[in-house]
Amino acid sequence: MTAMYLFLAAMLLPMLSGLFLLFFQGKLKNRTLKCILIFLVMALTAGLTVRLMCFEDYQLVLWHLTDKLDILVRMDNMTRLFAGMTVTAWTLGGVFAFEYMKHEEKEDRYFGFYLIVMGVLIGLDHAGNLITLYLFFELMTLSSLPLVLHTLTHDAVMAGLKYLFYSVAGAFLALFGIFYLYAHGAGLPFCEGGYLMVLDAYSGSGKMTLLVLMLMIVGFGTKAGMFPLHGWLPTAHPVAPAPASAVLSGIITKSGVLAIIRVVFYTVGADVLRGSWVQYTWMTLALITVFMGSMMAYKEQVLKKRLAYSTVSQVSYILFGLSVLNQDGMVGALSHFVFHSVVKDCLFLVAGVIIYKTGKKTVKELTGIGKEMPITMWCFTLVSITLVGIPPTSGFISKWYLAEGSLQTGIGGYAWFGPVVLLLSAMLTAGYLLPISIQSFFPGEGYHYQELRKKEPNLLMLIPMLLFTAAAVVFGMFPGRFLGFLQMTAAGVIR
């Protein structure tokens, strides 16, 4: 019962606080006090979530929708991983936004929806069965839409509509799968390793189940930016405020990853997919997305859009690691979830600082900016090295396990083709990120040094960037205990 009250507090506190801000926009005139109160809400929510993570694994029914449909929450290692990353990134992104949103209108509306999405994501991370997962998944789409629409320009409205249409279309594909799976006994709580294969109702329905699972992977993969339904992501990120882009890329895209994990490894079971056409198709789509996203990022000249295409590529690293259906692949996928979230949050915050302090939005404009913003650009450089996968940063660890998982599959050409695509993508990642750092610090003879003046941000912007940068490097240098946790989690769901 204590766990239930703590969960409700962790979920409802930010949601109710956000609703309060929306209903009383502009009423609280003291901006400093307002920011302090918002920070306290985020910090208390994070504290409650961490306290929940200390409980033993549990399942709690919150609400009986019908005699067969329960709203159920669950605590397990997957919940701990995703919820921990959510509250960390959301709190740091909120601190950054206190300064950034000074030059944006309707900041009460922004922070109102920002807090609501935080509460919805906590509910999603704790979802204990398919109907609860779907409920919070749809709520996340609807509540995060205003973050994309925030500026209400024509581009923002069009991007918001695209985000909505893609997300709803993907969710409806998944909903069809949920209808089918419930009819075959999948209304039970999530279970490590899945349970569908042991149910009598499943007998004789294997071919149809595989088709349904493919639709669900594509549907939930829409939120993760997987080909062919990836188009919303590079459209939505550039028009959203930078701190919103950071959490969209670092956290919200991973909700699709979590949903796929819950379906494949906690409902159906990896054995249902292993060696099937669904596994081969899933691996193919993930590798296409990895390479395509890297190529598009390499060609893109608008900084935030380049980072958005990078997210398309990097999140499919995670999906590829899941698709190999073995423990090393799972460890690589889960570690890349954390490391990419840390890195991409930082990269979008850096982009936000540059826009906030200089107004520059394209890559060509960043020549010499390292002379004006050395700390900011060193953060950019270190997390870029991490994303490439250069040791001893954390990106090397996740890509090592992804390659190991691929090589262990024994699936003909896929065993070696996966690592080849990952290496090509890493080279392209170096090609679209590291030249920015080089040109920012070494602008060449034509750069006018006499116009140089420092433009570093204040501590509200600087501290989140520094913490993300430190995490990206430290995780790679001291991965032992974290990897042990991931290996234990992977061993529990893939047998």
**How many separate domains make up the residues?**
2
Low-confidence stretches: none
Q: Which whole number gives the mean pLDDT?
A: 90
What percent of residues adopt helix (DSSP H or I)?
over 70%
Describe this structure in words.
It is a single chain. With 495 residues, the protein is mainly alpha-helical. The chain has two domains: 1-273, no CATH class; 276-495, no CATH class. 74% of the residues lie in helices and 3% in strands. The chain is built from 19 helices and two strands. The protein has helices spanning 2-23, 31-53, 77-100, 107-125, 130-149, 154-183, 206-223, 232-239, 242-268, 270-273, 277-299, 303-323, 327-358, 369-372, 374-388, 394-407, 414-441, 459-477, 480-493; strands at residues 58-64, 70-75. A two-stranded antiparallel ribbon has the order 1-2. Helix 12 (303-323) runs antiparallel to helix 17 and helix 16 packs across helix 18. It starts with a helix and ends with a helix.
Please summarize what this structure is.
This protein is an all-alpha fold and 495 residues long. The protein is 74% helix and 3% strand.
